[in-house]
Design a protein that fits this description.
The chain is of the alpha+beta class and 194 residues long. The protein contains 9 helices and 4 strands.
Length: 194
């Protein structure tokens, strides 16, 4: 699917067709080595002890162009990251509960981590996701599991030399709702006409 085709589908209200393609099949980042994709997903699922069917590459690595409204259509390139969706209510809930227990006033984190903690508190949890790469080592569940797993993904050609950024969603409906909203933003702002 091209950016123009995606924009046309969205403007006709066929958002569910886009969502269906967003979470299935081999993403464009793995086109030259499609057999690596199930192994890549398996590496993530194994480390997090979740179902491999609940892990998917999205974003520019999926379609070959960015879906972010502020950079819609920008091609996937050597500097692009690999965006991953992980759906796991247990992993999400354990991180969320740890986040709730924090007494923000007594914590000493780098400024960017502190800002990310507040962003999660005010916005991200509303959408049903957490971003381990922005929370860094603030949450023990990520410190123990997440960062060692991400380091191992560099052995896959598609991820070599690229940051792997993932959002952990509580449910598939949370993941789909967030992406539906982004697709509607592309359409409503006329960004899809580029």
């Amino acid at each position: 699917m091209t950016a123009k085709e995606l924009s046309a589908l969205a403007s006709r209200g066929q958002i569910e067709e886009i969502i269906g393609q967003l979470f299935s099949g081999v993403p464009s980042a793995f086109n030259d080595r499609p057999t690596d994709y199930p192994k890549f997903l398996g590496q993530i699922a194994g480390a997090l002890k979740c179902d491999v069917a609940n892990v998917a590459v999205v974003g520019s690595g999926r379609f070959g162009f960015s879906l972010a409204p502020h950079k819609f259509g920008r091609p996937f390139n050597d500097r692009s990251d690999i965006d991953v969706v992980i759906v796991d209510p247990n992993f999400f809930d354990s991180a969320w509960l740890e986040l709730i227990r924090y007494d923000f006033k007594s914590l000493t984190f780098d400024r960017d981590v502190s800002q990310s903690l507040w962003d999660h508190h005010r916005n991200h949890v509303f959408w049903g996701y957490l971003e381990p790469y922005n929370l860094k080592t603030a949450l023990s569940v990520y410190r123990r599991v997440w960062f060692p797993m991400v380091a191992s993904l560099g052995f896959f050609r598609a991820a070599a030399g690229r940051p792997v950024k993932a959002r952990v969603y509580r449910t598939w409906e949370h993941a789909k709702s967030y992406h539906r909203f982004g697709i509607r933003l592309i359409t409503s702002s006329k960004m899809g006409e580029r």
